[in-house]
Batch of 3 targets.
Target 1
Amino acid sequence: MAKKLPDTTSESSLSPLPDNFESVTKEVTVQTIAKGKKRKAESTVKATKRIKEEPALDDDIVAGAEITPRPNRRVTKKAIVKEEVSDDGIEVKKTSARKKKTEVADNDDKSKVMKTIRRRTKTVKNPEPIAQRTQDTKLRIGAHVSSAGGVHNAIPNLIYIGANAFALFLKNQKKWESKDLEPEAAQLFINGCEEHGISAADCCVPHGSYLVNLAHPDPDRKKQAYDSFLNDLSRCHRLGVRLYNFHPGNSNATTREEGIKLIAENINQAHQDPTSGKVIALLETMASLGNTIGGTFADIAEIIELVEDKSRVGVCLDTCHIFAAGYDLRSPEAYATTMEKFDNEIGLEYLKAFHINDSKAPLSSYRDLHARIGTGYLGLRAFHNLMNDKRFHGLPMVLETPINVIGEDGKTSEDKGIWAREIKVLENLVGMDVESDEFRELEAKLQEEGTAERDRIAGQVERRNAKNAKKGTKKGKKKAESEDEDEDDLEE
């Protein structure tokens, strides 16, 4: 606040100030910010102002006057762009959020800060493919690729491994909260499909959230699961995707019969919402029994029976899951028997997609442990049977096999070349003679590669079975069938 100065006689040659003016001194603190440095220099400047006296005001009023401070200037932080190269050679350009801050002082000398944050869609530069997409194949084979940074990034990732089909997560699969589908990312996804001749309606099978349980009876939990489910269907519709795969659910909080009814009710409700378009909901076959719904063909059939619009429901058959649940695929005879059971109980017309995985665990182990093609208990002959079944040519077949490898430095990294090689192996099985030297050599090589892991898991299963037999209780059996004793190996 301004203070009166004592009267002094000026020795200046300038004309004296008029009588109705007085000089005041105000201390102003100026902050000088050195560009590119974090430290601030402060200096105090004494400024002399000339203030004209108002004759109508007395000294007390003038002494109590306040000067309104000027608003601080706007400070803008420019966006910072960094380029990073991932382990697989994919260059990712990341743009940090641009922030603008404006400080405004109010009458109480309190500062209010308003922040405006603008996010930019991350784009992945197209890497050089490690395998070319096969153009003349009757099969649509691919893998579950990453969509980190936006759904559009799935396109260069599938091109990178030479895939003709793919799966992706439309949002974070392990969190309830999710950002809206960005229009820019959606358009880039559609443009990428058009550029590379990809029909997302026929070869894309997004995977649902692991948190969603459409069989839960609690109203709040039910709504939470339904909202996430419908949101995914809506995203598929906006992207031009026709198929959507999800785990049916579990009956931990209710009976099996009631759980199946709840799943069908949620599907029917979603079908009535126009935002879901004409997207087909695919029930995935599961590996375990107990409270898990979908471990038998009968479970799937019961859900479909209760769905009103049969044209918008189907099945995604996971080869590892059904094998672990007791459905054999290894010999031509066993394969034919399993497919006949599927047709009799569900109907082959509902089979819309496949998850292609070998199994680290033996038949009827109820263990969901994915293995690389030909290295597990299913073996190469099971996939030879499937690849040569013309009824399923043209359906999307998605690999979910493990691609983690341990380097010489002991660190784990992803080798997407594994998927690229497996796609070619599966494509080449069409028309191949299982008695040929080519097939026998490949079969033996892959089986040798997986020997240690198969033996390790077999030992676990044997010990568990012996423990259950000793207990001899139904409760113990159900618990063992439902739990996963080796979570580190659970690839989904």
Target 2
Amino acid sequence: MAQRGGLGPWGVALVCVDALLIVALVIILVTWPDSSAAREDPTGDAGTATGGTAATDGAGAGGDGTDSGETTDAPQVDVPEDVLDLTGFMLPSGNIWCELGNDAATCVIESFSYSPPSIEDCAADDSGYRWEVSADGATPVCGAAPEQPGGLTELDYGQATLVGDILCESTTDGPVCRSVTTGHGFQIARGGTRTF
């Protein structure tokens, strides 16, 4: 009569495979990204996004145009040492230009591929072109893209300008404009926007 109670080679293999699957599951659960955390963006700031991550100002990648509704604490603002003092500028692509005052800035994007944000009492055709930031926050503004003023200085990618409380940085992912005192701001690009 055969003796029972010991595991044969197939039994041992099955136990080893089970153990490896359990270890893999634990590793996945521990390293899985937290879906409730705010999304990361190219500059490392978290905030609210529309149309996905703000994509390259020139070509850009479209998104679904939804607003995640997530808001986070405003980040600490570091002013670059070589900051300029321009009250108006355009990005090298020519698609986005901004005007800065002591307390607020408005940027205009002439062409975009994201779904425009919904603004109360504003037609969809007049939404998504203009964005404004102040110490109180950043928001889209109702209105079609106005004519670009003549004589704007081209702010090269990597350069920044500071006027009063408003700092704007030119990046390949669109301008990032924010209040120095509160950190509230926005980033706009052909493929998407975000506010923080």
Target 3
Amino acid sequence: MDRNDSTEYNAKVEVEQNVANISGAARNAERKLRLKIDLVFAIKGILTIGIALVAFITLIDCPEIARWLSEEKKQRIFLLNNITVSGSSFFLPTIICTIPGRTTVRQQIPTLPPYIVGAFFILVILTLSWRYNHGQIFISISGPSIIVGYSIFLATLNANIRYVAVFLCASAAFTLGAMCNA
């Protein structure tokens, strides 16, 4: 081996050792970062659980017994609870008129079933809430169907699918309005 070959060999070995050192340092940094990320997630999880427990203990069943709400704010909550229900009565005929092949009279007939579904869910959910003496769990269970219903409204322009979304919204909106005001 001549001098140039040994110099090249030594340089390659040096580069390999430096790359190995850098790789080891990167692994150590990655491990420490993972520990920090795990710690961050653990702290966030503990805080979330703590806030949920405090909320579970301090949440009230209806706005009327909230000592910290003024009378004006209680009325505003009542108004906001009823916006979805009132909005469906305004926009349901518009959604139905986009379904092709319907006369004006035939457009009014399909506006009734969502109200029947809403009334059915009011009776079922309020009865279960009264029977088990728990309101918050039924409010929580009812919420996702209205989220899905409005998501469908945003996701499609198909009038028939939007009509199905009206039933999802009605099943939750009517119930939530009744539960929040009960």
